[in-house]
């Protein structure tokens, strides 16, 4: 494993330090048509039984991972708000009580949407839970993360722009095979806004049932995309994010945010910051002021990995959505470099792209252009979940120097944190029903990769090994 890590890291260092020309993958393969799966398909099946809970999904419920928010929908009547849970299957000796609400969107009337905070959980523990009443009870489970610890290992999956086509299904199923413990979702969930009138709400419901096989068992950390805005004056619906906000709660209060659209959570050894590309973010706005403070709250001694999620990518060399992230880059890029963000994940562009460590800051000599920058994050676009709009297969030519690898295929990523210094990253292409690891590298932590800190870490490690050996020799 060590040899493999060293080999992979030397490959990455070659790419990063020499600024080699990037790669535009020549891979092309016909995918399934980019049309939504028909509503009568089994992936959208309504669970059996009167008022059976459906569209079950969980997300982190607090700042540090000792709580989850569990959401579900009942179609016929409000039913019970209770969650019964415990440490073994069938033994639900604990309960939590949630809330229920419904809403209308044009003439569509939603089901009863339940949200329940389950808190005070133990770290690194598998919990079993049951929801619903009578013969319609349903059972699920989830695993809490390890306690916040700089060397806690953890595996994240990254998915964006998912939709509900057969390509989306392929992405979801491949992601399940990776063993990802939590999904970082970079916006654009259901693409229900592509429908008219009542079908908008109906396709939010079908997407909830579609995603349940993953989202009921592991937290999805949500961020909102443009397809969540749903500003429809022709239907009399002018409140942005209305369907999304009713259905996908986030623990924003725990990070002292004033909006569910931007917030942060800490999980294992990672501090994850979620931004909203479609909410005000310029100087003096609530999102700007919150992020200013939240970066100061990051403690790399406790959570070495600093990850940012947003929808619209800051660096993108695809014709699709070219420069749309530029306004956010101007406002936030200097912070990303100053605070040494490890990686920024985005979606929006329906293709895959990874950048080198680069920045385009206004420098003291008055110049501003993209240069190699060791303090900068790696920017990764994973907008390739497989929605009905199809692939963005027109990359700009020539490939810009900042672009390391790009390919117009469907897929998803994993980021497996090994310890405070190393993480292994994969982008997995969907290839005729198979999951193919296509872009792979070792990510060196931006804080602990610093030479002085690394030497200190090695020295401390050596001291603890020597004292361990001495204790063993003395029979202590
Ligand atoms: Fe988008």
UniProtKB/TrEMBL annotation:
Signal sequence region: 1-21
Residue ranges constituting the Purple acid phosphatase C-terminal domain according to the UniProt record: 376-434
Any GO MF annotation of the entry: acid phosphatase activity
Keyword match Metal-binding: yes
Catalytic reactions on record: a phosphate monoester + H2O = an alcohol + phosphate
Domain Calcineurin-like phosphoesterase: 155-352
Domain Purple acid phosphatase N-terminal intervals: 53-144
Domain of life of the organism encoding this protein: Eukaryota
Enzyme class: hydrolase
Cofactor needs: Cu(2+); Fe cation; Mn(2+); Zn(2+)
Family: Belongs to the metallophosphoesterase superfamily. Purple acid phosphatase family.
Protein name: Purple acid phosphatase
Gene name in the database record: PAP26
